[in-house]
Structures are given as structure tokens and as C-alpha cells.
Design goal:
Elements lengths: L2 E7 L5 H9 L7 E6 L3 H14 L4 E5 L3 E2 L4 H6 L6 E4 L12 E5 L10 E3 L8 E4 L1 E2 L3 E5 H10 L13 H11 L4 E4 L5 E3 L3 E2 L7
Amino acid sequence: MKILIGMPTLGKIPVKTVASLLALDRPAGSEIGFVANSLVYDARNELCQRAVNGGFDYLFFVDSDMIFPSDTLTKLMNLKGADIATAVCYARKGKHEPCVYKAVHKRTLLKESSAEVYTDIPQGCCFEVAGCGMAICLIRIYVLKALCKKYKNTPFEPFGNMGEDLAFCYRARKMGFKILADSSIDIGHIGESVITREDYKP
């Protein structure tokens, strides 16, 4: 089993993130790849190509400002029926909303949002979502191969009003791939403080 653990970065990684990464339970043959690029979608596309061309079975995205338990990867790999598996992360700013979505669609009016946030998170279980952030996200290699073929090696290219993460999810869902989220994994998002589910007040 070969897993590429991919981390887009601007060059600075908090000590707590490094500690989580080093403690992560991962199969033999796993590799960690860093891409320093101010354009996150370019970094994700590059990591995608590394995974496809390197004979990996999965690409596991970890953002450079996350804290996560050592069994995170194991739990995501064990989500049956998931082509894409994510933990539930929470935004650092605003209301600290969860970064999983009930619906992802193209905006037709300027005032419309491209996504409906999954505000009522089922706790301690697995559930299907229409989209997710890539902060803690495991993608099977056949998904990446299919999207790279269809979208000329740029499956994370933003379009319209969607950032790279939702654009990827939108494309993947259109091709019939399933995204599952596991809310049992306690994730921390490092900002001025560490943001967890306890900070989100629906």
C-alpha cells in the first residue's frame, strides 16, 4: 500500500502540525511530499501528478495548519464506499463553520453562494457530503486518474465562484464519485487559537 501524504505550504509549518504528521499511523511505503506555492490549486495539482505518476494508491492531503490524531489516516481508509474521505474541519474565522457541504453548485446570481454548509453535523459517525475542504482529505488514486484525464491534469483548477477544493468535489461528484465525512475524528485548525468543533455555534 503506497500513500502520498501531500502538504501544500507557504514554507512555514507550525510545530503542532509537524508533531501530528510525525505521529501519524501510516502504512510502510508511504511518503510525505511538500509543495511550496502561493497558489494552492497549483500545489494540489502538482501533488496529484506525483501521486498518479508515482504509483501510489492514495493521495492524503494535509494542510500545513492542522492538528489531527494518529489514527486519522486509518479511519479514513476504513470508510467503506468512500472514493473521497474527509474529516470534519472547522474554519478559523467567522463563525467557525464546518468545511463540509450539503450541496455544491454553480452560482447563477452574484449574491448566491456556491455551497450549502452542512451545519447540523451528525456526531461520531460517517455521512455523505456533496463537497469538502481538502485540509484533511484522502483520495483514491482512480479518482485522480479519472479527473486528470478529463481535466487535462488540472482537476483542482478553480472555476466560476468555486475555490480549488469545491471545484474538485464538484467535478468528482459529476463523474459519480462518492464523498464521505467522518465526524468522529477530532481535528484542530491552527489560527490565533486552535479551532475545534467546540468553537462552532450553529
